[in-house]
Amino acid sequence: MRATWSGWGDPPPFPEQLPSLVPGLSGRETPAVSLDDVELPESRLPDALRKIARTDREERVLHAAGKSYPDLIRLRSGDASGAPDGVIYPKSHDAVLRVLEVCAAEGVAVVPFGGGTSVVGGVEPLRGSFDSVVALDLARIDHLTTDRTSLLGTFGAGLRGPRAETRLNGRGLTLGHFPQSFEFATIGGYAATRSAGQASTGYGRFDKLVLGLRCATPAGDIVVKPFPGTAAGPSLRELLVGSEGTLGVITEATLQLRPLPGMRRYEGWSFASFDEGVEAFRQLAETHSAPDVARLSDEQETRLAMALSSSGSLTDKLGKGYLKARGHAGGCIVIAGYEGEPDDVTMRARAGGRVLRRGGGLFLGRRPGESWLRSRYHGPYLRDALLGRGVMVETLETSTTWTRLRELHTAVAEALGGAMAARGTPAVVGCHVSHVYPAGASLYFTWMGEREQGAELEQWRAAKTAAMDAIVSNAGTITHHHAVGRDHTPWMTAEVGEVGVEALRAVKERLDPAGIMNPGKLLP
Amino acid sequence: MRATWSGWGDPPPFPEQLPSLVPGLSGRETPAVSLDDVELPESRLPDALRKIARTDREERVLHAAGKSYPDLIRLRSGDASGAPDGVIYPKSHDAVLRVLEVCAAEGVAVVPFGGGTSVVGGVEPLRGSFDSVVALDLARIDHLTTDRTSLLGTFGAGLRGPRAETRLNGRGLTLGHFPQSFEFATIGGYAATRSAGQASTGYGRFDKLVLGLRCATPAGDIVVKPFPGTAAGPSLRELLVGSEGTLGVITEATLQLRPLPGMRRYEGWSFASFDEGVEAFRQLAETHSAPDVARLSDEQETRLAMALSSSGSLTDKLGKGYLKARGHAGGCIVIAGYEGEPDDVTMRARAGGRVLRRGGGLFLGRRPGESWLRSRYHGPYLRDALLGRGVMVETLETSTTWTRLRELHTAVAEALGGAMAARGTPAVVGCHVSHVYPAGASLYFTWMGEREQGAELEQWRAAKTAAMDAIVSNAGTITHHHAVGRDHTPWMTAEVGEVGVEALRAVKERLDPAGIMNPGKLLP
Fold first, then answer.
1. Ramachandran area for residue A374 (φ above 0: left; ψ -120 to 50: alpha; else beta)
2. Which fold is adopted by the domain B263-376?
3. Residue A502 is nearest to which of B219, B258, B259, comparing CB atoms?
4. What are the extents of the domains in chain A?
């Protein structure tokens, strides 16, 4: 299964109440062109690649972009002018190596392609200084072997989330990695982008799950052996994880697994304010009693979620009277999810609950949690519906220490709101905390406003730039789990410094001397 | 406080029962020469450095080596022919940068020096292709600021373990990092070598505690900001951690702290066999109920420890009759230590105890645990006593997955035993597991035999080579927490592969184009 060329998949109905919530929303129809009307440049490939590449319209358009807002705006308007010249589906690590050899010799750029779900331009098929570019789709490299004793699995990079989980679950195991892109994203993509999933507070970010890697680079293979702990120098594992296809192609990863949980308990809680909720989450982290899924929506996001909740599960117990009587009208909702053996889940939910209650939390029962769980992958489908009705909708994420978290939250929300208002398209900006660490937490922003017809990308760039500048001035990282891609490269020097960029560039030049690997990504 | 030039410190009496335990041990006196009799080459320094460097005998000898067996064998015999030409104590990050500038311009090698406790030749002042070398001792860079809200501390690299802990404890905090070198080792050294402490099963290896870093390189500064989680590309943090002074000088680290534990509970347990103990430890890891300190000695190490135990605390409850009646004669001892808030410690000790008991463990009460805790830093002092009585005594460590652990244990023990026997100096080889991960564990070997007079280094090299070859052929890492230094460089290619070495070399050449930083270490 893969996402549709113009978005995610089968969209739900447009929420007709949305224009009453977001100022200035017209709700006008803005449909995508049909696939046949997408403009596609001629394919230019050297003979050696023409024989093995697919060059049909659908394949090229499906690999012409990821799933960022600018990607979809361009594609839906019929612009696939940057589509790859061909799509190659190697069957094995060695086949990948051979393709890289040919591409380096012939001067063809290579974009490694997993699920194609990048929302930061990570799979945009830029040509760099070359005439041609191919997408290297890893879908056929999808093996899986498991070691139950050491709780390790060795995965082909092209294996997608659902298939991996189904196969693991059949063996009583789980990877526990559930990003919103779960239905389409691949193991290799998770590794290449330092993905974090919705349950990463408990299971750990994807970078923490990686023990071993196999990576094909133009300079040859790098094999990172799956040692549980090592002091053998700088970490090559951590150099390849997050390399976003710019150093080589990750073809295989050995990952930490867990026994399949015997029980899942998801709860809803309410806090009178975001500040109170943040402090309670900090206490959860400090006392090592954070749930596996820990999400706290700010006031704006809660208001939107309650208004849009179609199932009614959020609103029935959250009846305004109930919350108002307890001083939580206009407050913030929390989802707390615990997974594991029943005794353990019960004990941990009790410990977590004590901390939340002490911090001012109001227990809302399990229905809001279960409702969230059912709809955990719905966001991108809803986006398709909004894209069809003139809405600009976009997200970005960061993280910082607890000490700086509230300042950063305010600064980014104000930057987004200010930039959108300045263009005459005021936005609603919501945010949630979704990953909790001992030292701090992530912030995930969503904003919506009326789309500027004919100036969609300028509008997007104005808001994005304002937010990113606010992030780097307020001790935030430029990306918590979406990666750098193309969109964040202008802030990469602010993130790691000039000498830091030089160090990464040195590795890139050694492993990819021709510069064919995913040009225009990661490094400024 | 620093270690003595010829060893660690004030040695205990030689254990006179040792020759009855180790075949062929003579117990002959092998004293170190006096400091005045150590041979020291003339100091050769450019004027710019002569003004700021200390060049007196004691300083140069104190910085002439680390604390490995070959280091001490050479020094105790009066050979300081490789001593640095001078020792510089910079006061600040900027002063370090200036020293690097001068050294790069003048062609002087630089060895960053923390506690000088490397046991792998990591601070051996090799000159590389240069005429002179200076030791850059970071002792004066010892600031500390803490952020209680985010549980972070920012430490000067030269701060030593005890001073750091005292200052943190006064603020109700701990770093929880307690390697055997704790009394002398520094924060910068921990970071540069990927240290692991005795409590790292619970608190996490040092590399997991590092959030931020400041590093002075010949190409300029790298500042890694202390983000709790980030997806911004390959990890520069993980490139500098473990860089062993070959890329630059880590001058500051921002580290994850914990609240000072209100309770410490250390227990002793016994297992009938190492295999049973390993399986119980694996179960602890799988059920997330491992203690903060988890140590399991194999049969040989247990036998030695029981025989050498001076306090009698191991032997009184471990009376042979008691253990024999339970089928544990010749068995294996476990230390399980829990730290935290009292309720939490009680609950965790109960959970851990259930797993240990189910796995065949016999509870020996708290005295063996408390006895271990009192003597946790004694090992290197005892080594001084053995070095003075003709004993060859050395350690090495590795890790692998649970699946491969017992094979690796056997292979390394046989390699060490075989190599020593082949030289006519049969050895006792003991081992313990001291770090437990979900995927596997560490193995720490100690071996002792009669020292070969006049061929000490050849004897050492034969045993070391046999063990390292066994490690790389049996899925072990070449070092779990001692680092690569000089001694492990011949196996670095086996560890990370040729392309992996090239990637690291590329970074080295970019950050240190003159090649002055710690030549001869880390990279083959």
1. alpha
2. Alpha-Beta Plaits (3.30.70)
3. B219
4. 263-376
